[in-house]
Amino acid sequence: MSGLYGRIQQPWRGSSITFDLSRLVLCVAVITSILCIGEFVWIRRLTGGLQRVPNDPFDNTFASYLEERTSHSIWHEGYQSFIHNAIPVPIHSHNDYSHRMPLFEALGSGCISVEADVHLHRSELYVGHKTARQREASTLRAMYLEPLKRMIDAQNTDVTDGDWKGIFNHAPKQTIILLIDHKTSGRETLAEVQAQLQPLRDVNYLTYWNGTRRMMGPLTIVATGNAPFSSILALNPTHRDIFFDAPLARLPSIHDDYSTSTLSYTYNISNSYLASTPWHLLRTHPYPIYDNQLPQLMTASDKDVFASQLDQAKSRGLVTRYWDIPRKPENVREVAWSELVGRGVGLLDMDDMGVVRARARGWGRVVMDHD
């Protein structure tokens, strides 16, 4: 019997070995994938930098309001006092309507400029980037024009006729810029903006051009997007209170007149207030000119064309603004900010109001050329 058993061929275990090897390869692949994913997440965290913890004075003051744990409205004296005592900084609140507290968080962070994208629908201006929500709470009037008027009213209860006080107590003559980005047809949208500004116009709160000089007010309206420059020029030439956002990368124009002692520019303080361009078109240095390229005599036109964007805007009396500035990685963002602030750029576009507050005093003193 034992001999017979010995002659019986034992089953080969190759299939079992193959199965074990496959499991081993699968385990190695899974572990490698997990490690790669973990490394990718870690690299993303490093490039993204540290996350801001909402714990600054603004966050602490408005925490109960944001979390709806209080019966106080935004017009509570404590909230308004905080906003009016913010330190103004040369920052533009980009897509302001998307923030936790549109308008109020920007002002409470010290921003001197806010942006509202508007869509015209059935004689109403709705605020939003792509498709504005059509409800009363999201109108330009409800979100910006009426609150701004109410805040300026509160600051001007005891001023003399002809004088005014802005929103910021620490800079009472600092105007607030409301940049209205026209997302729908320019002429019709601009006409509705013009009509809705009447309550602010009636109390003389708007910056305007009187035919010979620009008269500053606590609120300056600037039109951009689909707003046509020709429609801005067609406004009342002795009381133009909507200004254009001029193209900073294309300020010199064939219509500029360099033949007189007082140069005449197409974009100037009578029709424009800002001059903006995206970051990738930035040119803070003059065009390089080599000796063999110099004309025998540099004309006024040559000097203007070869000048830096900042100098071109300054000669026209316009405030410069760069948008789409790199946000990540943080070291690139910081270099970009430092470079622009150091060169005297009028406004920096910002999305994160927490970062604005964290760097409030690091942005430098607000210097706006109002004359």
UniProtKB/TrEMBL annotation:
Domain of life per record: Eukaryota
Membrane-traversing stretches: 21-43
Iron-sulfur keyword on record: no
GO molecular function: phosphoric diester hydrolase activity
Keyword Transmembrane: yes
Keywords annotated in UniProt: Membrane, Transmembrane, Transmembrane helix
Alphabetical GO biological process terms: lipid metabolic process
Family the UniProt entry places it in: Belongs to the AIM6 family.
PANTHER family: ALTERED INHERITANCE OF MITOCHONDRIA PROTEIN 6
Protein name: Altered inheritance of mitochondria protein 6
Species this chain originates from: Aureobasidium pullulans
